[in-house]
Amino acid sequence: MKKTVLIVMLLLSAFARTVFANDKEVRIFIWSEYMDEFKMRDQFKKAYGINAKIDIYENNEEMLAKLMAGGVSEYDIIVPSDYVIPSLIRNKLIQPLNKAKIPNLKNIMPMFAKTTYDPGGDYVAAYQWGTVGLMYNRKKISDADAKSWAVLFDPKKQKGTFWLMDSVRDTMAMANMYLGFDMNTTNPAQIKKSAELLTQVKHSRYCRGFKPGVGAKNDVDANQADMAIVYNGDGMRAVIADKKRLGFTIPKEGGEIWCDFMAIPAKAPNVENAYKWINFVLDAKIGAQVSNYNRYATPNQASVKYIIPMDLKSDEIYPGPETMKRLHYTKDLGSVNKIVDEAWTSVKSH
Amino acid sequence: MKKKQPVIKALALFTIWFLYVPLLGVAVCSFNSAKDGFIWKGFTLQWYVKLFSNDWILTCAWNTLVLALVSTAIATVMGTVLAYGMNRFPWGRKTNSFLNMILNIPIVIPDIIMAGALVVVFSLMRIFSDIFRMGMIDMIIGHVTFQLAFVALVVRSRLTLIGSDVEEAARDLFADNWYLMRKVMIPLMMPGIVAGAMLAFTLSLDDFVISFFLAGPDSQTLPLYIYAAVRRGVTPQIHALSTLVVFVTVLLVIGIERLSKKNEVSLTE
Lengths: 350, 269
Description:
The complex is a heterodimer of chains A (350) and B (269).
Chain A: H1 2-19, E1 25-31, H2 37-48, E2 51-57, H3 60-68, E3 77-78, H4 85-90, H5 110-113, E4 124-137, H6 150-153, E5 162-165, H7 168-178, H8 188-203, E6 207-211, H9 213-221, E7 227-231, H10 232-241, E8 246-249, E9 255-263, H11 271-281, H12 284-294, H13 309-313, H14 321-324, E10 327-329, H15 337-349
Parallel strand pairs in A: 1-2, 1-3, 5-6, 5-7, 9-10
Antiparallel strand pairs in A: 4-7, 4-8, 4-9
Helix pairs in contact in A: 8-15, 9-10
Chain B: H1 6-30, H2 46-53, H3 55-88, H4 93-108, H5 111-125, H6 136-162, H7 165-172, H8 177-206, H9 209-214, H10 222-232, H11 236-263
Helix pairs in contact in B: 1-11, 2-11, 3-6, 3-8, 4-6, 6-8, 8-11
């Protein structure tokens, strides 16, 4: 008898946590180390009285997989990268924004308010933008060597251990550009060549494998590797703390420029709270706080005056016109996505 | 008189060393005040302190515990009943071998196939009721599904060991079903039930693949947290967390071992 009562009570307590969902909460699914989770949560709670529950992921594909496996009705905010948005809209995984509920949308710079990924600016609100480049240990790799991707991809020029980024579009892009192809090539022969290059590089004794940007950055910072393909904000957080030892650069063959956006999944449970969160993040001071923390570039015009002046002058965080020539946006490849995915799978499994 | 076998002794010691030295290494690193690398910089408890003020980890630990306890309770009860039914009911030969086979499937099947199947089932059931959205209930059902087979297997082997003599003797002495269960069968089966429950508990604590596919934002468990954290870089906090988990597991095993020794009803008394 006692056992049954105990079991029933345990069941009820498990039930209670899930059935009585809180309407004073907002569920955020975001990249790791993209904001000061504890601080933002406390500030948001103070401002609106809503609990922010934060879950993290390491790349877009992981987020997409979770979304399609049921996450579309579990999360209120997701932060996809630019090239994922057209397929999110196509597959009706995100819902249009009620712009009247997000007055701070007006703070976003015009170039990020309406993009080719979301022509009407109806579905997403810009979060941060940045680049993908090479982070390296200046004591092992000279600044001159780091100016070319050959230091990773050419067996004769590899000078130290490195991690490749565990993200299909980012790493394939670097391989494409090193081989002289267009970063977003849809030519199957070219994609195959890049896959073969990556497979070869993977087997080199200097390559430690594939790791998401944040993990790879932490490894270079901890001297567990000499180089890594990382996002500029992650890289710069480490570089700024130790300028003599670490460096970040966009090699001459080219790098990637991207913008991440906040979106609301189609069946989000707390849509109103999601609007409040987006409005909160787009506030001038909060936007600057986010960028000053994660060292990415802000798309928020009103935040610019609160950004750390040294960051504004840093070419790695806010690329100047010369660097901009080497940077390219990732495009949604539509039906060619499948070919790229297969190439990536073959790289990972051979 | 047993002959001393130095080779076997050496092999045994080597195996124990092989199993436990890595765990000891992690424990030692968790007290190391250096943030990275293996150079000993000084003894510190700061990683443990940081652990307890990190409410993310505490929530995950709580979720893991609730999940393990609830699913173990359900699986033990259902598994015992299943084992008793399979062993004592006079099934036909074909039904018996069929039941044997389906009992073994959850044990042999790769975790990821089980997880994939569960994802498909729950997305179908979500059409009927919202209770099956990704979260604790999904995870409990998923865990019970594979724990059942293990518990039933362990209890069934214990039942075969007991044999049916004691049961028949009890019935001869006018014991009704409820009395038989309470005073004869369950005490006899207890070591099997406890072993099955322990196995189920450990499986649930450890489980990564099935939890990964079924977890919702509210029900992240420790294995999921550690996986995500390790992809970003192993910090000493992870070492501290792992050491604590191993420590708790060891305590549990010792405790249950002691308890079951007390309650065990011997067959030859």
